[in-house]
Amino acid sequence: MAAASAPTPPSTAEIAEAAEPLPSKLENSEADCPRKTRPGLKRLALTFTVLFSFLLGLPFLLKSVEIYRSPLPFREIDDLSAAVESIPLQFPCKFRAVFVGTGGSSFDANELSVKIEHQMRKIAAKDSTSCGACSYNSSVSVVVENGADCFRSDNDFNWKCGALSELNRYEDSREYNDELFDEYLHSLVDKSDGRGNGGNVYTMIVVRREGQKDVSAVVGKYRHGWIVGRLSEEEAVKKVATVFVKVFVNGGKEEGPISGEFMPVGADGKIVLSFNLLNADPHDWIYDWEFQEIDDNLLAPILKYLKPLADISVESQVLYHTPKSSFSYWDEKLGGYIFTTKDLPFFVNSNEWHLDTSVAAGGRSKILHLVVYVPSATECPLQLQLPNGKISKSNGFISPMWGSVVVWNHAACLNGSKMETRVRHMISSEDMRKIFEVFIGQLRQLFGLKSKGIFRDASGTIRLLTSESGFTEWELDVLSRQHTCFNLLQCTTTLGSLSRLVQSLPRMIIKEEIGEQVRYSIEAAKLALSNVSAGIYDASAVSSRRARSFAEDAFYHPSMMSVSYYSFEHCFAVYSPFFLPVALHVLLAALREWKRYKQESRKFKAWKAKKD
Amino acid sequence: MSRLKSCLLIFLALFSATESINVEVLNEEFTEALLLRPLPDRKVLAHFHFRSSAPPSERCGRHHHIFPKSIYQLVHKFQVREMELSFTQGRWNYERWGGFDPISSSNAKPPGVELWAEFDVPQDQVDYSWKNLTHALSGLFCASINFLEHSSSYSAPQWSFGSASGKLRYGTLPREAVCTENLTPWLKLLPCRDKAGLSLLMDRPSIYRGYYHSQRLHLKSDEFGASEMSTGMVLEQTLTVVLRPDTFSGQALQPSWSLSSLIGRSVSRKCSLSSSSNVYVQFEQNLVFEGDKLKEDGEASENAIPVGDGLEDNPLFELSLPPKRVIKELGNSQKAGSILHEFSVEDSNEFKPFDLELNWKLPVAWSCPQAPLQASRFLLGSGNERGAIAISMKSTKSNNVERTSSFDENECWLRVGIFQIVPWYVKVYYHTLKLFLDGEPQSSMENIEKIIVSPSEDKVSTGVMEMILRLPCSVNTAALTLEFDKGFLHIDEYPPDANQGFDIPSAVIHFADFVANMSFYDDSLKQVPILSKLQEEVPVVSYTEVLLVPLTTPDFSMPYNVITITCTVFALYFGSLLNALRRRVGEEERFLSGKGARKAGPLTLMISKLSAKLRGKPWESPKQSESGRSSSKYKLLAKVVLVAGVAAAWQFYFQ
């Protein structure tokens, strides 16, 4: 500064000007002042130093305004979704058919096995492959027991021959009863099964009996079923394959409008069953229930049983002044107030029914409302009329993913006798039992299972035994397979959306927690996949649930929702008032100096050439 | 069934063992009551009282038929031992509506939301529970209670609120607007909601038109105690409203009213779930005294009025319905106590709704019992820098002071507790605490019996002052001043309407030696929850006004302005530095003089003259140069065309 402001007029230039009295227009500058000294480098060096120091500082600036983005394993997410979505997830299942008392016909076990497999594939091909099905590549083991002879196919799962030798004796000795027979078979099959050899085996026992005309097919509570009767080999093969595919694999579901994609399990793998007793008008009567007793005796075993599927908790409340919002009319013939299936969408009165979300159910648990509706005196008895004109036996309905409603008409109302008001009546324990039977049936429906005990097919009917806990073992298998499959699908879609979101917003802050959750989720998903391929249903369901809940946690992390992500515009707005003017100065100065230096050096060269 | 039996057994065992009068019934119970009280300033106080109780869940299960599920879950999730939440709008007028009765002591609340809760968790988890509780409550009651979550918005009083366990947290939101959206979830906790019973009277427009309304929820549970004597959970919900009856008899001293004219509704259905639904009309001590006096006068003059019960033929007022019973409060030596008329709404129905009417026969004026001191709080000082908080207490000269302090004259002391929370941005200097008694500054601390001060920490915690003053009974006025500096907030911390000012929550003044309770002749009355509540000994408490402190609010575009101006300064500095470094002065001068030869307009001439003068050099008149002029003209033209072209292109492409 001081050097620049010091008045040091370069004498050469003045002399040069003085020496040129007539400035010519052409080549003004060169002609103006012939350069006689080598142009100085001081100013050039200075401006360029400034320019370069700015350029060098730029990375530091960018580093300082950088935001933290936890590195997400995008590739792994893509791999996982490719693995889950490309091929439908299929579980290895073990099937076994036991033919007992085939008489004189010589069945070859291996041949039968191939035949059943072929038939199963044929049936399965017709079905749309639902999520969580078994892979039909695994072979079916066949055992043929004929008296003392026992033929096994090559791929046998430790079937003990002669285990069913007492079967015929059993049937002859006692009165035939499906339930008892089921238990009996269970004890036999269980004994013969090598337990704990990875996965459970579905067994079909075909008992050929010449005396019996009709063929009865029953599927028990455990993982086996039986066919008794006179049937040919082809029939037997067809039937066995049907039971395997339609019942054991697909859960005996009929193709309905609602596909089984709904699983009322919250993202954190929890379900809250919220039981509500609604007294439509407490002026007419007040009903109460012994819920504690039901909770202990009826619900607790079921919940324990469903534990691998979901973590279920139960809560209850009694609400009053809760009229329904649809209308019902008196029907003389049916002797009651009728509401039809058309009224069902308007039955639930969300204004007056305060079926609150639960404080206990934090986060993303799923709440299923199970409602017992006690109609008021002006609408009692209240009956549900089915589309075919009949009165519904259960007098209730479900709403998928929301819950279910049962209308309960008390006896006094049915008789038309007078009730004492102002007294708290208790719903009798038989009535409670009935109501809860309906609830369990509804719960089965909410989970996507059939509520009827019969499976009809082109090949005939198959009787399905029901378990007292509501869910049979093979049904639980089906549910946990589906659950695993849906969870994994959900997990991959969530992770996929997350990765797309993150990639589309390059300046979004991603916290380390999110990265961790994503990694955990992927780990759990991989574990679930490996468990699936090993055929361990429970463990795969648990780890798939973990995978999903971690994925959802990452996606719904509060920091992801924050609006104030540090946008590029913001950054630009903050830094441009400084950098724009300064950069302009520096660049222009550097440019000018460079130009001048070139010009001057050209002049100098010209002068030198002239001089030489 | 077995559980119920065991419950009953335990209940019987308890009953026989303790034989106490206030039996805690081990069954779920719901009661409702409404207390109406005419106020001296032509207004009427309506106090709704709902109580639901549940037996301990350890013994009688976790499923209830009356007790609200959400509250049960709240208690169990956050292990709440006691909790009180109030939503208030308006300010209780202590002077006119009284300050020495159970209702004003426990139901007069500071405006906005007040929440305190005591937890039954280890000391280090209390804050965590509090935070979660605030969130749950804000969801449950549709209010921004979750703003109490941050540690700079709540405090942990040591001994001002009941227990001294250190597990109590207290917070207020003075600016919370209270309206129907808070009342509806509150009503949802009642089994009959507002479909039947006394809650039918809660006509929203008339309630919110009132002068004061406070909706309160008090929860007490000893679920987590190890004791066998646990009584379960008790949820008490009260709504206190001060209304003015709409009457056209404008000049009358006391307007006559009926329930339907006061509230606009009448009870047409009883709540079949409540075990008792009563309406009480309370006439205060002073009013009863006036009435008695009048009656005596009448008797003295005429001797015609028969001396009866003194109620049906009350010379002051007339009630449209005969009361179910009349409950008299135990009075003191000079005056008889207040009188409660009980009415039952049990037999009301749609054809015969319950509608009570009160008609005044004679104009009467009376006053309500007052707390010994009447407190008010205000700000001193001006400007945006500093100020002072003053709490002034004026003696009401009520006879309560003499009544309760039975010491001799020179030993009579009045103990006054003060609890004050100050947000951190109001930086109070506690050493500047000054006490004035009757205008005289008190130098020593002899009037302060006990004091705890926890100064605020910036952005972390509030400042709390708890103290007990010991004032002589004869004191007329007492004043307390505290100086403070106003702090600066970070730009992110300002609320949306920062220019409105910031609230300092109400101070709580409590008179530890005075208890506001009513005592009745009949001890069996304790079984009625509202009456047992009135008989409970609650310390006399009053709240002061909320203070509004204006803080310096910045212009909120300031950060960008600052950025812009600093950057401009920096850019100027850099630019000029760079220019100065690379400038060639001599050459420029030469160029200028060469250019100066070509005479431009008078402006350039002036500039060159000026610059020459500034440089201290003699100015040389430039020579005319025709050619230079013409070329510069062309250049100018070209420039103008260029700019116009750019502008046109800009317009074309960007519109």
TrEMBL record, chain A:
One of its GO terms (cellular component) is endoplasmic reticulum membrane. GO terms for biological process: GPI anchor biosynthetic process. Pfam families: PIG-S. The keyword Transmembrane applies. Pathway: Glycolipid biosynthesis; glycosylphosphatidylinositol-anchor biosynthesis. Residues 1-21 have a biased composition (Low complexity). Residues 1-35 are annotated as: Disordered. Keywords: Endoplasmic reticulum, Glycoprotein, GPI-anchor biosynthesis, Membrane, Transmembrane, Transmembrane helix. It is found in: Endoplasmic reticulum membrane. It is a multi-pass membrane protein. The chain crosses the membrane at residues 44-62, 572-591. Its main location: endoplasmic reticulum. Belongs to the PIGS family. This is GPI transamidase component PIG-S-like. It comes from Salvia divinorum (Maria pastora). The lineage of its organism: Eukaryota, Viridiplantae, Streptophyta, Embryophyta, Tracheophyta.
UniProtKB/TrEMBL annotation, chain B:
The chain crosses the membrane at residues 560-581, 636-654. Residues 1-20 form the signal peptide. Coiled coil: none annotated. Pfam families: Gpi16 (PF04113). InterPro entries: PIG-T. It comes from the Eukaryota. Keywords: Membrane, Signal, Transmembrane, Transmembrane helix. The keyword Membrane applies. The keyword Signal applies. PANTHER family: GPI TRANSAMIDASE COMPONENT PIG-T, GPI TRANSAMIDASE COMPONENT PIG-T-RELATED. This is GPI transamidase component PIG-T. It comes from Salvia divinorum.
